[in-house]
Design goal:
The structure is a single chain. The protein has 347 residues and is α+β, with helices and mostly antiparallel strands. It folds into 2 domains: 147 residues, no CATH class; 146 residues, Rieske Iron-sulfur Protein (3-layer Sandwich). 37% of the residues lie in helices and 15% in strands. It has 10 helices and 13 strands. A 7-stranded antiparallel sheet has the order 11-6-5-4-3-13-12. The protein has a 4-stranded antiparallel sheet with strand order 7-8-9-10, with no helix packed on it. A hairpin with a 4-residue loop joins strand 7 and strand 8. The longest helix is centred in the N-terminal third of the chain and has 31 residues. The radius of gyration is 34 Å and the shape is elongated. Keywords: 2Fe-2S, Cell membrane, Disulfide bond, Electron transport, Iron, Iron-sulfur, Membrane, Metal-binding, Oxidoreductase, Respiratory chain, Transmembrane, Transmembrane helix, Transport. InterPro entries: QcrA_N (IPR045603), Rieske_2Fe-2S (IPR017941), Rieske_2Fe-2S_sf (IPR036922), Rieske_Fe-S_prot (IPR014349), Rieske_Fe-S_prot_C (IPR005805). Belongs to the Rieske iron-sulfur protein family.
């Protein structure tokens, strides 16, 4: 073989041994913003504009939350009827977060240094030299980000990042103010004739009679007049939902509980007194009601007392009777105590 063919043969042999050899990095090509200061200024203004839009969207989020009625419904083409407040909050918060992300990406792709660097893998334990190198690289990265030389970007970014958390702070309003009287009164006490409210089967939507509640069954009830087309339906059902169970009168341990029942039928709040989960697991033999969230267990034959779990107080009982004219079960007024989770204002 001639000498001029030896390099070609060696190359072919190496390619055959390692067909997936690392080709290495291509030569670095500068971007337009690297060589044209006008283009860099234009990119700076674009990034800043995105951060400013984010700030305006955050302000719009807060304004929407304060000014738009939570029950207001609007009709949007293709989407139908939607809640105006939810739509406004979603759009403004989405724009605020998107503009921060888009601004950061545009900043990185147009103004930050984009030199390609290969870093070989090393042991997990870094040597002192490597730690010093990391600090130098961090400092170099801070310099390469040009944040020190681009005050407009720095100020608008800080403004956008400082304002967007206010969205979460404003939403904390839904955790307060203090419960006050919100849990002390339910739909049972607001409606009905002469303090009596017909009990409706939550599943069928029809009034309940005593014979509809058989021993061993668990029936879900709600007050008459609380329908799904009511704009307060979800809010009120979260407090007014009840469970009805038939016990033998001699199984009821409390005199007050017996007086508040009708022929052994007792009605209790469906809302767990721990953190407000809906209860729906009934053990017929023990008359225990189990909350599926944290396993709080209540004895329906003993004033709904807590027998296990983290709940701190008994389930509130609803006093019931029967309408002699219609034969329907009715609630006598409201719960005597607040429903749902315990809170520091109960006392």
């Amino acid at each position: 073989m001639s000498e001029d063919k030896l390099p070609e043969a060696a190359h072919a042999s190496a390619a055959a041994l390692d067909p997936f050899a690392d080709p290495g990095l291509p030569a670095h090509e500068p971007r337009r913003t690297d060589i044209d200061e006008k283009a860099a200024k234009r990119a700076e203004r674009q990034v800043s504009l995105l951060f400013v839009i984010s700030m305006l969207a955050t302000a719009g989020f807060i304004a929407s939350y304060v000014s738009i009625d939570k029950y207001k419904i609007i009709d949007i083409f293709f989407f139908g009827k939607v809640g105006a407040l939810n739509l406004a909050l979603g759009c403004t918060l989405g724009v605020a977060l998107f503009c921060i992300g888009a601004g950061a990406i545009h900043w990185a792709r147009t103004l930050m240094t984009d030199e390609e660097i290969v870093q070989e893998r090393h042991e997990l334990k870094s040597s002192p030299e490597d730690r010093e190198a990391a600090i130098r690289e961090f400092q170099q990265g801070a310099a390469d980000s040009v944040i020190g030389r681009r005050p407009l970007i720095r100020r608008t970014m800080i403004g956008a990042m400082a304002l967007v958390p206010l969205s979460g702070v404003v939403l904390l309003r839904d955790l307060g103010p203090l419960p006050g009287v919100a849990l002390r009164h339910t739909f049972w006490g607001r409606h009905g004739k002469n303090g009596l409210t017909t009990i409706i089967n939550e599943n069928t939507g029809k009034p309940l009679r005593p014979e509809h509640i058989t021993k061993g069954s668990l029936v879900m009830g709600k007050p008459e007049g609380l329908d799904q087309d009511n704009h307060e339906y979800l809010e009120e059902m979260g407090k007014a939902a009840i469970l009805l169970v038939r016990l033998e009168p001699d199984e009821i341990k409390s005199k007050k509980q017996l007086e508040w029942s009708y022929n052994g039928i007792v009605a209790y709040s469906k809302i767990c007194t721990h953190v407000g989960c809906p209860i729906g697991l009934y053990e017929q033999q023990t008359h225990h009601l189990l909350c599926p969230c944290h396993q709080s267990t209540f004895d329906l034959a003993d004033d709904g007392a807590v027998v296990f779990g983290p709940a701190a107080r008994s389930l509130p009982q609803l006093k019931i009777t029967v309408n002699e004219r219609t034969g329907f079960l009715e609630a006598v007024g409201d719960f005597a105590e607040p429903v749902g989770p315990s809170f520091w204002e109960r006392g």
